[in-house]
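Handout, section 4.2: multi-component inputs.
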Amino acid sequence: MGAQKKSATPRVSEDPEDLARNPLQAILLADSFATTFRPITLERPKVLLPLVNIPMIDYTLAWLESAGVEEVFVFCCAHSKQVIDYLESSQWSSKPNFIVTTIESHNSISAGDALRLIYERNVIHGDFVLISGDTVSNMLLTEALQEHRERKKKDANAIMTMVVKQSKPSPITQQSRLGTDELFMAINPVTKQLLCYEDKAEYSKGFISLDKTLIADNPSIILHNDKQDCYIDICSQEVLSLFTDNFDYQHLRRHFVKGLLVDDIMGYKIFTHEIHSSYAARIDNFRSYDTISKDIIQRWTYPFVPDILSGSTAIKVERQGTYRASDVTVSRSADIGSFTFIGQGTKIGNDTKISHSVVGEGCTIGSNVTIEGCYIWNNVTIEDGCQLRHAIVCDGVIMKSGAVLQPGVILSFKVVVGQQFVVPAYSKVSLLQQPTHLDSDEELEYADNTSGTGEPGSDKLNGDITPDLSETAYELGAGGVGYIWSVFEGVQDEEWRQSVAPIPTDKLIKLMLEKDEDDEQLTQDGNVFSASGELKADSDDNGSGDDDNEDSGDDYVFFEKEVEATFLRAVNENVKVDHAVLEVNALRLSYNMASVDCAGAIFYSMMKLAVESPHNSASELHKNAADIITKWQKLLKSFLHDIDEEIEVVLKFEEMCLESAREFAALFPQILHLLYDKEILQEDAILKWADEKEGADAADKVFLKHSEKFIQWLKEAEEEDEDE
Amino acid sequence: MDFQVVVLAGGNSKNLNPLVSKDVPKPLLPVANRPVLYYVLHQLGQSNLKDLIVVVEGEDAALLVGGWISKTFVDGLHVEIAAVPEDIGTAGALRAISHHLTAKDILVVSGDLVSDVPPGAVAATHRRHDAALTAMLCSVPVSGSSDSGSSGGKDKTKKSGRYNIIGLDPCKQFLLHIATGDEIEKDSRLQKHILHAVGQMEIRSDLMDAHMYAFKRSALQEVLDQKDTFQSLKQDVVPYLVRSQLKSEVLLNGISQAEENGNEKLSSLNNQVLVYQILANASTPSFHERYSMEPDGSSQSRKTHKCCAYIASNSSYCVRLNSIQAFMDINRDVTGEADHLLSDTSSDRDNIIGPSPKLGAKTTVGPQCILGEGSEIGDKCQVKRSVIGRHCRIGSHVKIVNSVVMNHVTIGDGCIIQGSVICNNVQLQERVVLKDCLVGAGFVVTMGNEYKGESLARKEK
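Output:
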């Protein structure tokens, strides 16, 4: 069908009547191409993780179905088999007007790859909804879709509509309640065109730049700091081909959106659609998992709430937002607090307190357990006296009696926590060992991971774990099984930002203090920036001036090394003097040095060579030096234009005798004489040097004393000259 | 009303050469036969702002301006004239007269503003928010007042509308960002912490800073004292206040003063603040207040001050006479579309002719013209869309279109003048043809010469 359909589409899309006949399609990326949910995602794909006891992908699919999408292509990559198996066994495989097709790939490492693959399959025939499988929403698509189509009709370059929602980031942490970094978007208030998208805005910078052409083209721009990107995009077909054309586009936002915004050659435009009353959010990290779970329990996502979605199993909603499956065994003395979900077949013991938590199916919870703000998945055993705060506990975990989870802990599948063991805050515990290397680019990291997707984790586990049991036991207390993943350098400080646990107060206070300091700096910076022109120029000059000074020190060292290398090569390869001069001159220009520096550096190299070439006595050294000087005098002379440069050579020599080549110290007068004889140094230069040194302290005058005779002789010679 | 008004009238403006001269400093340049300063003073009087200081650059100019004011506004306005040295900038001028400022709030107006926006409205906005700064913004006039003067016709179209870059909060009440001058040509840098506090900022490039500011006196004096490098209100002081509004350094002293004055005053101050809040319709606190609260909502830990914007409605007229192009435009507009500015002129609206003009036979004076008193026009002349000053003598067969002719000008027979400005005491001999020319005061154009797009002026002695 491919070729035929394809040729037909452009014509079709011009006619709205025909366009309407095209079924609305959606691409659902069942892979986030990120690692924020590790270690859990090492064993199970993110879209199958339970969100209030229902896999995330069900929320997404249910919404797509309700929004009028008729055909969904589920792109699976990591753990693709698990996703496919799940979809085949679920209700989604048998809906009459809602076709779910899976597209499997083993080598896609980014959303860009995924879309390129889908383009090759040639299955998308019109506008489509691009969404990832971890999105929860209840918005109506019709309005946004209508806007998109109308815009597209008027302007063929309007290829994408992004859904945004009001959400002001916290003034202290500068992250939204979903734990995502603050986002700056510039939007034209009339056309709603997106003009600028900055999600990785540097914290250090106190300002945000808007391109002047944007301001020139749009009389009014609204710069938003209070909007959240819902990651629901309505795209035209061109989006797919753009990904194919730009094979380096990986990330949907960082590459594609920004790429389009920056590139004004093609003139493609992105627009935004703001939703006000409906819900849309994407689970990007543990904090958003926490936030969205709470939103679901509080029914912001209605009708996509557990009691309606789960259908078959009866879940009752009680007062204060408590959800309870039908066959739950709860002790009379247990206290099930507000906004809590208790799954089917779960048993809860005496005096146990649970609040603001989700407890999955088939769990066994002992007596005197405290659970607060936790997400406990299925078949978890929690023995008596355990305490859990703000943690995620995956399937099959066993917590021995008295174990404690501090806030922010993630226990991956089948981990066993030993008796009385306290798992420290923000730890991530898994049966799998931590991958030894962390790719700096998090999206590309999935490459290694996908190879193991075929087998479900447990096979591998058994093999891996047994030999190391002794060690793991140590890590998780007596009888514990699992590795505590170490936190990478630099990430450590940021761990609290995207954790399930609320941000501790002391962190907030610290941040606020820091922020105040920052602000102070900012206002100061601000002064520099936009006070009157002169002021700015001054301060800039000062700044760069300082830099120059610092740099020049380093630069000179590099320069000296380069000159030395050049000189040695010239010596070894017998390069012509003229060529050597050229080379040194080139270096001089590239390092922005004066010829004084060249002279110093060349002389230094020559003397160093003399010292380094084999010699047994001072006289041999003298001979070496004399040979080299004789041979390369032309090179040196071509940088000695005036007396200052000659003095520099003497000073350099003096410095060498004191520091790097002490052997020359005894030979100082002789070499000086030699240089004079070879007409490298004129008597004026030597005398001037002597004059300058006259006033110096005793230590500095060592060499002057050494060469007193020579200088005396020079002076006399001069007088004789004058006499004549 | 406890508002003092400072009118920065300027003096010799280089932009306006050769129109300004020793005898006619910038504030006295005629717009429809009245000095441009008249329009500002008139508007201030209408808004009942009558305590004025007119700051003029240069002693001579100050004498001239003072003389004119005492003649024109005999009663009603209480005007002081202050002379300041030239080239000290607008901030410098304010610094020089700082000791004259006593009222709680100061309204600073540029003397070259021709506008029908009531200054009282700006003052009221300022008071309502208890702001440290309120700036009047107006939409960019269609005819435009390009910085580069009459020669800049091309630039004008190219960078249309880019006068200032202004950031506003969603309610368009507060001024969050302002960039003027060179900064407009660069990429805009917007301060994040302000954006954080407000959430969204509207960036407008189609608004013009009309150079009418209301300042809280304490804040203004504080800035002028602390930042002695600041030269210009527009480029230094106002951006500084806007930038530091959430990190105020200027009001610290204001508060300590109140404390010194004893608790009574403090409590009355608090009451005032309360009243202002109610007046400000502040059912929800503005972002300044929210920002200044600790997260637990208790004490005010941060010092903030408010910077407000008064945006004139689209229909209002607001142009600054700061270029020759603007001079022409304003003269044309005031006689034409914006003739309500001449509200008290008794004559017929379309064709305003002074009390005793003498028109020759078959001479037509078209609509949108003004003919000053004592001017005489010979036979068979045509005057269209032009302003002619007092005591001019115009010969026969003269055609004057789209031009401004000042006082005591003699125009010989058969001259054709288009799109030109003719200053005082100019003599045009017979059959002179001028197109888009500027003729400086006292210049004599000899018989039969033709000029196009030139600036003619006497050499300074």
